[in-house]
Target: Chitin-binding protein
Amino acid sequence: MHRKLGPAVVGLGLAALSVLGTGSAWSHGYTDAPISRQKLCANGTVTNCGDIQWEPQSVEGPKGFPTLGPSDGTLCAGGNSRFAQLDNPRGGTGWPTTKVTANQNYSFRWQFTASHATSDFKYYITKQGFDPSRPLTRSVLTLTPFLTVNYNGARPPATVTHQGTMPSRTGKHIILAVWSVADTGNAFYACSDVQF
Model:
């Protein structure tokens, strides 16, 4: 006995193929050194985080930062309104910080739930004197990355560490890490609060 599939079932099947066909459905990741806001939410260290507590690897948005990418004020959530809690500065003191030292050698680490062809990883930091009680914008970031790791289309392993030097800063700052995927129009974003 043969049954015809209804239009709704066919539509769902096509939608699933469309998501799988982008490639990004299988590629997700976040930084855990210095620990990112999304990982703090997933750990339960920070509460009232919304959906990101179950999906710390899913902060995906348009690539091309700083020229393109998420709009100002939505950088920590990758422009994804579903994860808007990551953009909330929580009064400038509500996000725990990782203690770092200016000019120290540091191991920046990403964790991946799945790998993807990668263009590069770039790390940006806020300027001295920025206001941590306001959402992150391009105007408060040094828009030249202090660390760039080119990947030339290779796929990273489940965990990858990048050696770099912390910039010269004092006080509280935000590091914005951007993982640009090579074969889609997207990148993954992670904000880490640090204290020099």
